[in-house]
Amino acid sequence: MHLIVGEDGLARPPWAATDPLLRAYYDEEWGMPVRDERGLFERLSLEAFQSGLSWATILRKRPAFREAFAGFDPDAVAAFDEDDALRLMADAGIVRNRRKIDATIGNARATAALRADGGLPALLWSARPATTPVPSSFAEVPTQSPESVALAKALRARGFAHVGPTTMFALMEAVGIVDTHLVGSHRRGTSGAWLPDGAPDPRFAAPGARAAA
């Protein structure tokens, strides 16, 4: 079963059909364009923490992550030191993984440095493909793409960590750079960035982009 029609008459994938938190995330946030630096830094950080865990776990911990990481203000996180890293490792409200904590601090510094070369929004949105997938089943949803491979390479070259091609494709899905809502879902084509047939919405303007290479 690829989609489940809820009591409200709306079709959603099974992962978003029952849990109220995941349903609200799917209906209101997942796949909607994020174009500001702080919002993208938060999503990039959470996707890195999610690796090896369920997204529901990360979503339930997001308020604690926001408190622990200064609202994901890149400048504030870039200033974190060893005492902050130890504080985070002692925080049971977040995922206590030292490598991911260190990567997030390092990525904040890389985000700040990237402003001199166009900024994080421009770099991430440079990965937007000419067309987006049009999947009718989960088997047709990619886990990475040539664009996510190029984006991962570009981010690593600029000092980012925990930004592999699969993680970057998940980020691209989450922030609207691609639309992988299944055909028939009530969310398909609703982001304003993509039409239901996979073509770009001509009314949408992405941030100014530099080549991801």
Average residue-wise pLDDT: 95
What is the overall number of helices?
9
How would you classify the helix and strand content by structural class? mainly alpha
Q: Order of strands across the biggest sheet?
A: 1-2
Strand-residue proportion: under 5%
| Helical content (DSSP H or I, runs of 4+) | 40-55%
Annotation, overall tally of beta strands:
2
Broad CATH class of the domain at 37-117: Mainly Alpha
Shape: globular
Low-confidence stretches: 209-213
Report how far apart the termini are: 39 Å
CATH superfamily of the domain at 37-117: Hypothetical protein, domain 2
Name given to the CATH architecture of the domain at 37-117 = Orthogonal Bundle
Largest sheet: 2 strands, antiparallel
Which fold does the CATH topology of the domain at 37-117 refer to?
A: Endonuclease III, domain 1
Order of helices and strands: EEHHHHHHHHH
Task: Provide the gyration radius in Å.
Answer: 17 Å
InterPro entries: Adenine_glyco, DNA-3mA_glycosylase, DNA_glycosylase
Protein name: 3-methyladenine DNA glycosylase
Pfam family, one: Adenine_glyco
Organism: Agrococcus terreus
